[in-house]
Amino acid sequence: MELGGLAPFIVFDSANVDQAVAGAMASKFRNSGQTCVCSNRFLVQSGIHDAFVSKLAEAMRASLRVGNGFEEGTTQGPLINEKAVEKVETHVSDALAKGATLVTGGKRHQLGNNFFEPTLLSNVTRDMLCAREETFGPLAPVIKFHTEEEALVIANAADVGLAGYFYSQDPAQIWRVAEQLEVGMVGVNEGLLSAVECPFGGVKQSGLGREGSKYGIDEYLEVKYVCLGGL
């Protein structure tokens, strides 16, 4: 079983901000944010926070195009149904009511129906719905943090753990954080981590078992123990 996630995307002060923005774009906005491993919560350290938010907003405005998927140049299609749009609207309105700042987007697209503008929020806090529930849409909420320990507490404060991402150029930090993130899959300086060679799956309430890699066949096999003696 694979039951979704609430993927954190952490950007530490040591990160290459341009690489982090590119990874965020790939991880958040593939299929308009409608995949189980899309980043849902962006945790950005205070020293790099403003530069990351500014560059992410610039990248969103420059490269995301909402429209008909059969038309050349379109990068963002519609959400799956009306309820999906309403959920994104609820998450945005809840965050703004609790003090978040709208950087770009924030409403249904002028195309109507199930199209929603790619949206970036800053000054997001842990009590907002978008930080506690999987949005499954084109919403990127940014939470500022100060220490590595704080980031891990926020990232792990979920009953699910499918994918997690973080950007850092500090080798010691990379190993510490990769081990302590409570997820089944970790992308380090990478925004896309799925491949047939890799064991896909999560921990906590994100499901049981793995698909892909040699571990994906385990559920179809029986283990036989043979105790041989007397020769």
UniProtKB/TrEMBL annotation:
Superkingdom, natural source: Eukaryota
Species of origin: Myotis myotis (Greater mouse-eared bat)
KW Cell inner membrane (keyword) present: no
Pathway: Amino-acid degradation; 4-aminobutanoate degradation
InterPro entries associated with the record: Ald_DH/histidinol_DH, Ald_DH_C, Ald_DH_CS_CYS, Ald_DH_CS_GLU, Ald_DH_N, Aldehyde_DH_dom, Aldehyde_DH_Superfamily
UniProt EC number: 1.2.1.24
Annotated keywords: Oxidoreductase
Group of enzyme by EC: oxidoreductase
Gene3D superfamilies according to UniProt: Aldehyde Dehydrogenase, Chain A, domain 1, Aldehyde Dehydrogenase, Chain A, domain 2
Active site (catalytic residues): 2
GO molecular function: succinate-semialdehyde dehydrogenase (NAD+) activity
Family: Belongs to the aldehyde dehydrogenase family.
Protein name, UniProt field: Succinate-semialdehyde dehydrogenase, mitochondrial
One of the GO BP terms on file: gamma-aminobutyric acid catabolic process
One GO term describing the cellular component: mitochondrion
Domain Aldehyde dehydrogenase positions: 1-226
